[in-house]
Amino acid sequence: MATDIVNTALKRAGYTTLYEQVPWARALLGLSEGRHDVLINAWFSEDRKKIGQFSAEYLLNRIRFIKRKESPIDALTHEQLHHYLIAVVRGYAYSPAFDSDVLLKKVPVQNFSTAVRMLAAERVDLTLEDEYVARYNLALEANEVRARVEFLPGSLSENSLHILVSLKNPHHAKIVADFDREIAAMKADGTYEELLRLHGLQGPPEL
User: Fold this and answer.
1) pTM beyond 0.85
2) Could you report the per-residue pLDDT of 16-64, keeping only the tens digit for each?
3) Are residues 83 and 128 in the same domain?
4) d(CA 144, CA 21)
5) HSE toward the beta carbon, residue 46, CA cutoff 13 A
6) CA-CA distance, 3 to 119, in Å (whole number)?
7) Which domain holds residue 175?
8) What percent of the chain lies above the pLDDT cut of 90?
9) How far apart are CA 47 and CA 24, in angstroms?
10) Which of 2, 42, 83, 129 is 20 to 30 A distant from 159 in Cα terms?
11) CA neighbor of 34 nearest in space, from 162, 165, 178
């Protein structure tokens, strides 16, 4: 989805894009050396400003908890999470504090679909996932699963996505300005929302 949003905005601004998928460390090195012009899905950090110019945020990734609708569980502190069984996807990085907390009662599962079905079947108390990913996958679940669950208020973590344009590119400031302008225009004319819908990620504010 991020690729489609970025490619659409850059093409509308008059740029020709060539997408190459490489490991993250290699992508950063390529950007710093000027071999790559743009990283399409960079989280903001001060260190990365040394090698590139960030665009404005074009997408927000939020990791959110999901519970059964009839559950009395409400907004939770980190310490309160210790009381509940939580289905987690093996190998998934949720947040440093959550991932490293050995007191949490985590139930490892293969994927989000398994996690949310266990939640609906009352085998765990909570699960969690990136909100866009969760909405997409919930739309594929049976109604008896989807109808039993809902997001808890708030989020475990939030990370804004930006493009990062290499400072080695002499036109980096113009590329960022053009991209930001087209993202704003896409939101105004409905193109942005349509891209979300095409990826199955546009939905009501809450389940």
Assistant:
1) no
2) 999 998 887 889 999 999 999 999 988 888 889 999 999 999 998 889 9
3) yes
4) 38
5) 0
6) 32
7) 1-59+159-199
8) 72
9) 15
10) 83
11) 165
Tokens of 154: 């708030």
Locate tokens 């490293």: which residue?
100
Residue type at position 133 = V
Q: Are strands 85-89 and 126-130 parallel, antiparallel or unpaired?
A: parallel
Tokens of 80: 């309160």
Residue 205 belongs to a domain = no
What's the pLDDT tens digit per position in 99-147? 999 999 999 999 999 999 999 999 999 999 988 878 878 988 999 999 9
Q: Is residue 204 part of a domain?
A: no
70 and 151 belong to one structural domain: yes
**What token pair was written down for 204?**
């009501």
Q: What total of structural domains would you count in the chain?
A: 2
Task: Note whether 65 and 127 are within 8 A (CB).
Answer: yes
Helix (H) or strand (E) holding 160: strand 157-166
Q: Are residues 133 and 186 in the same domain?
A: no
Q: Do the domain assignments include residue 111?
A: yes
CATH at 148: 3.40.190.10
Same domain? For 120 and 47 the reply is no
Alpha helix (H) residue ranges in the chain: 2-12, 24-33, 96-100, 112-120, 131-138, 143-146, 172-189, 191-198
Q: How far is CA 144 from the centre of its chain?
A: 26
